[in-house]
Amino acid sequence: MSKVFVNIGLSLDGYMTPEGMTIEHWDRPEYKNWAAKWGKLMGWIFNQQYFRENLKLGPGGETGPANDMIRRTTERIGANIMGKRMFDAGERSWPEEAPFHTPVYVLTHQKREPWVRPGGTTFYFLDDGPARALELARESSGGRDVRIAGGPDVIQQYLNMGVIDELEIALAPVLFGGGRRLFENLHEAVSQFRIDRVLDTPAVTHLRYVRE
Amino acid sequence: MSKVFVNIGLSLDGYMTPEGMTIEHWDRPEYKNWAAKWGKLMGWIFNQQYFRENLKLGPGGETGPANDMIRRTTERIGANIMGKRMFDAGERSWPEEAPFHTPVYVLTHQKREPWVRPGGTTFYFLDDGPARALELARESSGGRDVRIAGGPDVIQQYLNMGVIDELEIALAPVLFGGGRRLFENLHEAVSQFRIDRVLDTPAVTHLRYVRE
Predict the structure, then answer these.
(1) Cis peptide leading into B20, omega within 30 of 0?
(2) Long-range contacts of the stretch B126-133 (C-beta < 8 A, 24+)
(3) Closest CA to B45 of B26, B69, B14
(4) A209 at interface of B, judged by CB pairs closer than 8 A
């Protein structure tokens, strides 16, 4: 069966996004210094050849083990699940050919028709809860894996459901001091994990955990 | 000059101690399951030969790279600084020959005479603030380094003072879901770090960061 996994960047102090990085301040990167902070978190990925190619950011880029990892991760995904806030931010940022090339299930209370993008990405807007979204994602994944893309609240819901098989974290040596934490609101009986693999790079530490 | 460093165990969700691990529940390890959780965080170190020898836990233990690292870390320490809560817990747990073998400055508001232990550990109880404690620790360290031992609130004070040169974190693949977080209450202008070294072991990931 498809694996369910998370693959995200995390600040050393546990935040997925810095304070101030919200839709309202999307056009004010200087607000609370959010863009510089986020750059310290995710800058490394914009230097990777496969990521650049996928987001149409232009040629060039590194082709080492981090790049291979991004390629493997991207190619294993058969469906994505994300929250409405992440979708709203992405809608303003992704190129016309959104970088998923799979069905993407957006957890929202707003009704909206599916949104088909060139390149094989279709966004489906669901109001039936995370369990139903996972069911649909599995069914449509063609036997490949399901990525819980984010944000933190969505990942927390799936962690608490005990369905996350793998946690992949790119831990960046930056302290945000505030923002949206990944690990919060977890129930007592949340899944536990073991270390599966560590990839040590100068910019971030790639940590891969598998559910016990 | 002496370096100032932190060397601690951290749960994957960012806690130094699980909920329920307080003096009041020291004799009730089943309370909120604190002892089992802490075991998942620190169990690895009780298997290391140098740690066992230093705490008089008996012979044997692993002698690999993690053990070498503990030895190097212990030998570089010329003075320790800790909070009153950590001291109180340790006072109930350390062997008569407390495992520091250096001056230890305890930040507290309670007055108490220095407490001399066999084996070279003397605890000094200070009510003059963290900056003064660091000054005394440096002066008495014999040119070796100063360890900020904990707890989280003490480490946060020194992080906010911008004086921590090195952060050494043994990141364990356990989710506590609650407890005392390391990275909290940080000011906007807190120091930033770069990755210096990663040691990948099956039980924990040893991450070493150096101030930029």
Answers:
(1) no
(2) B130/B81, B130/B154, B130/B157, B130/B158, B130/B161, B131/B161, B133/B81, B133/B105, B133/B107
(3) B69
(4) yes
Task: Render pLDDT for B128-187 as a digit per residue (tens, 0 to 9).
Answer: 999 999 999 999 999 999 999 999 999 999 999 999 999 999 999 999 999 999 999 999
Report which of A159, A151, A177, A2 is spatially closest to residue A85, judged by C-alpha positions: A151
Task: Return the residue of A nearest to B187 by Cα.
Answer: A177
Give this prediction's pTM.
Answer: 0.96
- Contact pairs from chain A to chain B, CB under 8 Å: 78
d(CA B67, CA A166) in angstroms, rounded, equals 29
Is B57 part of the contact surface with chain A (CB cutoff 8 Å)? no
Residues in contact with B50: Cβ distance below 8 Å, sequence separation at least 6, in sequence order? B61, B67, B70, B71, B74
Residue pLDDT, tens place only, B80-133: 999 999 999 999 889 999 999 999 999 999 999 999 999 999 999 999 999 999
The three-class DSSP label of residue A118 is: coil
Backbone angles phi, psi at A10, to 5 degrees: -135, 135
Q: What whole-number distance in Å separates Cα of residue A38 and Cα of residue A105?
A: 25
Distance of CA A190 to the CA centre of its chain: 20
What 8-state DSSP symbol labels residue A110? S
> Which chain B residues are within 8 Å of A209, Cβ to Cβ?
12, 173
- Copy the structure tokens of residue B131: 């900056």
Query: Are the beta carbons of A15 and A40 closer than 8 angstroms?
Result: no
Best of B175, B204, B206 to mutate (most A CBs within 10 Å, chain A) = B175
Nearest to B174 by CA among A104, A183, A28, A98: A183
- Dihedral in degrees, nearest 10, Cα atoms B40, B42, B46, B51: 170
A205 close to B (CB below 8 A): yes
Name the strand (E) or helix (H) holding B157. Answer: helix B152-161
- Rounded CA separation A168/B33 (Å): 27
Are B104 and B121 in contact by the 8 Å Cβ rule? The answer is yes
Within an 8 Å CB–CB cutoff, is residue B94 touching chain A? Answer: no
Contacts of A194 in chain B (CB under 8 A): 173
- DSSP secondary structure code for residue A105 in this structure: E
User: Minimal Cα distance from A211: which residue of B?
Assistant: B173
